[in-house]
Design goal:
disordered N terminus, Tetracycline Repressor, domain 2, DNA-binding, homodimer, 8 helices, mainly alpha
Chain lengths: 186, 186
DNA sequence: GTAGTATGTTAACGATGTTAACTTGCTTTT
DNA sequence: AAAAGCAAGTTAACATCGTTAACATACTAC
């Protein structure tokens, strides 16, 4: 019989408990003990599955990023025939993704919080976009691929901060981002 | 005789102690007790000057931002006759400012950490740039001022994240930012 | 069956943010 | 000048936190 359902049951529960903890209390007030209680285990149990608190948080982020990998993969498929649309849609979707996953960006973008893994997380996020830009450049368009990547990625991350800071509403920023990118890859 | 030197001596000491604390331990490990000890007072003394820990951190950030206000003010004066150069120099200086003040951007850009004041801090940072762009638009250039502000500010903030995340070296990013902005306001 | 390992428990430690109760010294009022 | 009031420091205590150590228990392998 398969034992897949019971494999690492507690670990999985800890991760999704950590996810709601992150959503509700943010990165600053993230309490490992609360997560353990929420998962129905003792306060020391997490240490059987994770090195320390940051390790759990890292796992939660990894879990969340799987959603992005899935989503971006679908976009790549859908817009396979129109690279410019792909770049645009990936960026706007990326913006919405970060805004929807409110507190995660705080953790990922704050360098101190996670050891040296944060670029790993970030790069696994912007890889699809960078890849699409490279493909755009490779398809004969005369562009400085590196500069274009920088422009688009920085605008994307910057838009997140602007929205987060209350400078603009999400949808407004999404539209602006779409415009800005369109003007770059016309 | 002037009693300026002794006015709020402890409060001032707490702020600069908080500043070095933020530099050395980051926002996540910021310890109020350590700050108090560093300032030579008891662990409860800060509560005579600040509502709570976050209030102290806010004060530290305000203090740091005074440096930017000063710097940006000088740039505005220096490049008064060349708005395009002003926009460019303000942006690059802004990037360098955040990178130099490593741990502060973590605090300011993480929404959860500071109550609702974070946009206040951010807006007092990007106000000079927004202002310069508006002036650029007002001087007869046919541009969508709002869109241009969005582009430049988002690229600026995004560049900070990219540098912070290890995507690019500071000077490299500064050069790219300069290029990107130049291509927008030619 | 017995040894070993994986995974849970409870109990404890030190550090932290915060508050309450108190002292102390200066300023103002009478 | 004496008293009242207040600003600003102290110490002591509390709950919570991350983390570790010591112990228990069940599954797995030889």
């Amino acid at each position: 019989m398969d034992n897949y359902t019971s494999v690492d049951n507690v670990r999985a529960r800890l991760i999704i408990a950590g996810l709601t903890e992150l959503e509700q209390h943010g990165a600053a007030d993230f309490s490992l003990r609360r997560v353990a209680k929420e998962a129905g285990v003792s306060c020391a149990a997490p240490y059987r599955h994770f090195k320390d608190k940051d390790d759990l948080v890292r796992a939660v982020i990894e879990y969340v990023l799987e959603g992005w990998t899935l989503l971006s993969g679908q976009l790549v498929t859908i817009f396979a025939s129109d690279i410019r649309a792909l770049i645009s849609e990936l960026s706007v979707a990326g913006l919405r993704f970060w805004i929807a996953n409110g507190n995660f960006r705080t953790v990922i973008m704050a360098s101190g919080t996670l050891g040296s893994g944060e670029r790993g997380a970030l790069s696994s996020f912007d890889a699809p976009i960078k890849q699409a830009v490279d493909r755009y450049a490779a398809e004969g368009q005369i562009v400085d691929s590196e500069l274009l990547s920088f422009k688009i990625l920085s605008m994307l991350y910057g838009a997140i901060i602007l929205v987060d800071g209350g400078y603009e509403a999400t949808e407004h920023a999404a539209e602006r981002l779409r415009e800005a990118i369109a003007s770059e890859i016309l």
